[in-house]
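TL;DR need structure tokens for one chain.
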Amino acid sequence: MQKGNQKAKYLLLGVTLLALTLVFAAIFSLYFSSETVQAKKEELLLEQNYLRLRQQIADKEREYRAISDNIAELKDEVGLNTTKNLQNSDALLQKTTPLIRSMILQNLPSGYPCSSRRITSRFGWRMHPIYHEKRFHHGIDFGGMEGTPIRATCNGIVEFAGYSKGGYGNMVIIDHNYGFKTLFGHMLKNLRVKKGDFVKKGSIIGYLGNTGLSTGPHLHYEIKYLRYFIDPYPFLQSGESRFATILKETPQIRWQQLISAITTGYEKFRAL
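>> reply
TL;DR here they are.
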């Protein structure tokens, strides 16, 4: 009888311990389950806030681009972007000798930057092929085969050579004389130059590619004078006969000062 009572006690104790274990396990599970739910809620809230902030940033960037484009368009309309100071191109042309014209052309970016002559997008306002909104295109696009050599269009110093986060992909910028710069975008990774290199007109700086914001293999080519973007098209034909056309079609360039600077430099060189 005593053994039976002892067994009953042990059984009761075992059942009690099991019940307590199950209760504690349930409480433990419930606690951590609620913690997990709370953590998931916080994670979801953070993700929603992140997405909202990204959308706000994208909206602000769109607003900024729209404002910038409107300002640029207004400047185009009133002539501020072209610094039209009523330069008399015919009078300037008469002041230059064939030798001076030749020297000017040697000091300006001129000629085609690659063997491809297929222009896929001109300088000016266009519908952006990726963003599908009206934007100003600051250069000329040449469609071509990947690997087509790209050449410097004027002597200069490489200011940048590498990958651009601004959409141009692998890019090279060359600094030239008298405030001119050229930019070459969407190139292949194997650039032939690095920052600080001196390059001569016609030397290979890289190869046509499809990097950055690009819908197909092409070269984006820009010419900049001081802070103004210049339409590269008048400069593609490098012959001296094009000088008058370049003079008339690029009023952004302060030709009178430029001609005077080049002429003075030539006269000092002759005097040596």
